[in-house]
Amino acid sequence: MAAHAPLLQRPAGGFDSAQGLLRAEHFQMAWATNDMDRAKALLSERLGIREFTVIGGPTRQGGETWAALAWVGSIMYELITASGPGSDIIMNRLPQGSGFAMKHHHLGYLVSDQAEWDALEAEAARAGWAMPHKSINSGFMTSCFIDVPELGHYLEYIMPEPAGLEFFQNVTRN
Asked: Are the C-beta atoms of residues 22 and 13 closer than 8 Å to each other?
């Protein structure tokens, strides 16, 4: 099938997280799962995302986190799973039990620079939203999850450095 121009020409974003947490550049949707193979099969066989870039391994807290990433158009889809110490931020909203579980975990937003990051943190604090996780991976990216309980999922913000941008550019495209 030949590629074609987008059906909808979207307006350029006037991204300003200081005006509200949803005023940043949305680029990602993510689900947490307790069975990565089954979740990938669901997205592949039933929803058309055939190939993924898989990353992961040990965490600083002593647990493990794994992610499967795939671009479809302008949206990156992510499946994440975790186990052991430090896994709560990924797994805490999944139903307990031995059966397969997959649940929306977060919407991902890009933050372009330190000034926008500072405005994001100030807006989250002003609004009273918790930031249960923040990671600074120098030379790669800074990220955090903000909890907006009414939404039922997290909002993730990522401020990539050049190596992080290169990583995102190299994620598998479907």
From this structure: no
Q: Is 131 exposed, middle or buried (0-12, 13-18, 19+ CB in 10 A)?
A: middle
Q: Which pLDDT does position 11 carry in this prediction?
A: 76
The order of strands in the sheet holding 141-148 is 53-58, 64-72, 75-83, 25-33, 102-110, 153-160, 141-148, 130-137
Q: Residue 133 is inside which H or E element, if any?
A: strand 130-137
- Per residue in 131-143, pLDDT (tens digit) is 999 999 999 999 9
Cβ contact 66:90 at 8 Å: no
Homologous superfamily in CATH for domain 24-169: 2,3-Dihydroxybiphenyl 1,2-Dioxygenase, domain 1 (3.10.180.10)
Report which secondary-structure segment, H or E, holds 167. Answer: helix 162-169
pTM value is 0.92
Domain range summary for the chain, segments of one domain joined by +: 24-169
Evaluate whether 156 touches 28 at the Cβ level (below 8 Å). Answer: yes
Tell me how far apart the alpha carbons of residues 112 and 155 are, in angstroms, rounded to a whole number: 16
Q: In degrees rounded to 5, what are phi and psi of residue 5?
A: -65, 150
**Could you state, in chain order, the average pLDDT of each consecutive group of 10 residues for the chain (174 residues)?**
72 75 93 98 96 95 96 96 96 92 97 93 94 96 96 97 97 97
